Amino acid sequence: MEYWKDENEPIKAFVKLFEAAMVDAELTGGLKKVNQLILFDYTEDGPNCSFWVDCRKGELKVGPGKPAEPPDMTMSLSADDAHRSWSNKLNPVMAITRKKIRVKGSATGLLKLAPKLKKVAAIYVTVLKDLGWEDKILA
Amino acid sequence: MNGNTGKIINVDLGKGSIETELLPEEYYTKYIGGSGLAAKLFWERGNISADPLSPEAMLIFMNGPFAGLKLSGASRNSVAGRSPLTGNWGDSSCGGYFAPELRYAGYDGIIIKGKAEKPSMLLIEDEKINILPAPEYWGKGTEEVNKAIKNKYGKNYRVLVIGPAGENLVKYSIILNEGHHAFGRAGFGAVMGSKNLKAIVVKAAGKNMNLADPEKYEELRAELNPKIKEALASDVMRENGTAANLEGGVVSGDVPIRNFTSNYWEEMGQELNGGILTEKYLTKRRVCAYCSIACKRVVEVKEGPFAIPEGPGPEYETITALGSLIGSMDLAAVCKASRVCNDIGIDTISAGGTIAWAMEAFEKGDITENETGGIKLLWGDMATVIDKILPDIAARKGKLGILLSEGSLAAALKTGKDSVNYTVQCKGLEVPMHDPRGGGHGLALAYAVSPRGACHVASPMLFMEMGACFYPEIGFEYELEPMTDENKAETAVIAVALGAIENSACFCQFADREIAIPEWVGLFNSVAGYNWDASDMMKAGTRVFYLKRLINYLFGRTAKDDALTPRMLEPARDGEPEGVFINFEGMKNKFYELMDMDTVKGIPSIKKLEEYGMGVEAKRVWRET
Ligand code: SF4
């Protein structure tokens, strides 16, 4: 991995990112409308390198690892590409075209999720700073 | 001949004559088929000085080599000739079911000239081709006529029909297949109307076709059909139609709002997107022949002021043109307006663009109730649009109906003041529903240099900027940043060739995104035996682009017409692209340089044309120098 020391680092950053997003009422409202259980799967970089976001039933939860129930949608990519993506340095459509991102499951969910992820990404730099990981911020 | 039948039908409605003709194979290897081959035939046989609505005007329908081959997205057809809306070269593509049937009947295309004395229809049943009187259909809507023809001849007879708008020569009239699939752009419904031709009907007895290498083709088909079907984008469109990502488009600033005066309207994105259409009104999904994507919608609005029975539903362009562009986020109203446009037979993009211009003109006071005949034009007033404006346009009735029936540019020229500046068109064709200021700056260039005028399907630029294409074999393996001019001219050089290939092969842009360059070449070779490599194929695409440019030059169009109106080029006022400037002239100059096009005439140099085997064509356009 180019940006991460081990498989725990990216998950720590991304879970914190969603926890930070939950503070924003508008963003939380938007994510709840997605109404899906989503698995972000980076296991190509380590068996525990994944986290999930559950925005079903009007709630919003996030956690490391795999969810207890089968996800509605799984996005698989490398932890480095995930970092580029949250840093707005990876065009997701291009990444899908070139098979860097693989999506399994609900297409509807993906389309509902995509505009919201852009808003989540807007706070990624702050999250990295809070974690003391300024060195990971991409210019 | 392999793949193509090599045979076309020549119809002279004035003389009542019908002849079939075999075309030389070289026409196909040089110009492929579809709109490329149509351009070749127009170049040779078209009367350049003829008014597009005169009997001398040529109306050309042309298949691509893959029609009927049971390959997803490959069974479309092109209509072409001189556009009555723009006065330039025009072509328009249609899915549906006409192309394969024409192919099975033994023909690649139809050229129609002359004017029938009375309302007529053309009936093609293999070798039996007849011009029949059709007064009973004249004056009627497309839905009724489509049904009546199918009742009379059989449900498997494939029908092209025009509505009252085409009969009344509304400049952006459509030709509709099976009541659902449209040759939407550039006004060829009016050309049919001007020829007193209400419908074209085709039925074949068999499905015989010769292929150059049937085994190789079957191998390719077996790979491509599942690949197209299972692609994420296909899944998305099957689920929620072509408006599936409308909300995402709003976020990036791609979706035009109120005549392109705004690039952001969050609630509208939440109300008009394809997911909402699915949830609220979808009853069925429909396909074009042999396509596994099934992006077409069938909808029913059960109640409310805009209730409509089950029938064809709107796709992205229509939802936006008859929704956000005219200030509405009422999806039921959009469904109804779309249905009305289908039935009267007008293009939803040009209708929306023209009405949006009129609404802004009314707001500014450039047109008043004096010019509208007492009609108030207010953003989002869908009842007036549906009950009054659209029917009046189709009938060319009342002051406003007459004014708007000619399209936005003609209406603005008549209105004067500075109203041309806020038309959103290029070469007279209303801009489709992707705003380059938010969708990608390369799209501005693609709109401007497209021979038919502002067109998002003339090339895959939109998809290339978005990141949905990857063609390392022809040098497109780099990433584009949509909101800059970087590499856009270079990309446009590839894009115009690819677009010409797609439109000549009559392949749907949604389906062919999954086809890699070696697969494209494999298809042409296994089906038609062209024996191409990638560079031969790209050369044919560029040749088609050049030829359409030459035709426009004969119509008097030059480099200065590769322009966008001030509204398109002013920085966006809100949303993601707010304040961003498009370096349009920079991209255009670079494109001209790379394509070796003359910066005044707007056509390629003699040397370039000769390099593309177009020495004869070069002489015709360059002879005065
Ligand atoms: S993707 Fe849609 S428009 Fe294209 S051929 Fe298939 S059904 Fe028709």
Q: Would you kindly provide a written description of the structure presented here, covering whatever features stand out?
A:
- The complex is a heterodimer of chains A (139) and B (625).
- Chain A is of the alpha+beta class and 139 residues long.
- In chain A, 43% of the residues lie in helices and 16% in strands.
- Chain A has one domain: SCP2 sterol-binding domain (Nonspecific Lipid-transfer Protein, Chain A, 2-Layer Sandwich), CATH 3.30.1050.
- Chain A contains 6 helices and 5 strands, in the order H-H-E-E-E-E-H-H-E-H-H.
- Chain A has a 5-stranded mixed sheet, covered by helices on one side.
- The mean pLDDT of chain A is 91.
- Chain B is of the alpha+beta class.
- Chain B folds into 3 domains: 7-203, Aldehyde ferredoxin oxidoreductase, N-terminal domain (Aldehyde Ferredoxin Oxidoreductase,  A, domain 1, 4-Layer Sandwich), CATH 3.60.9.10; 235-415, Aldehyde Ferredoxin Oxidoreductase Protein, subunit A, domain 2; 430-622, Aldehyde Ferredoxin Oxidoreductase Protein, subunit A, domain 3, CATH 1.10.599.10.
- In chain B, the strands form 4 sheets. Chain B has a 6-stranded mixed sheet, sandwiched between helices.
- In chain B, helix 14 (348-364) packs parallel to helix 18.
- The mean pLDDT of chain B is 97.
- Residues 73, 95, 287-288, 291, 293-296, 508, 510-511 of chain B line the site of iron/sulfur cluster.
Helix percent of chain A reads 40-55%
Q: Mean of the pLDDT scores of chain A?
A: 91
Derived structural class of chain B: alpha+beta
Q: Write down how many β-strands of chain B occur, each being a DSSP E stretch of 2 or more residues.
A: 17
What does the main sheet of chain A amount to?
5 strands, mixed
Low-confidence region ranges of chain B: none
Q: So what's the CATH class of chain A?
A: Alpha Beta
Q: What is the count of DSSP helices of chain A, taking H or I runs of 4+ residues? A: 6
CATH superfamily of chain A: SCP2 sterol-binding domain
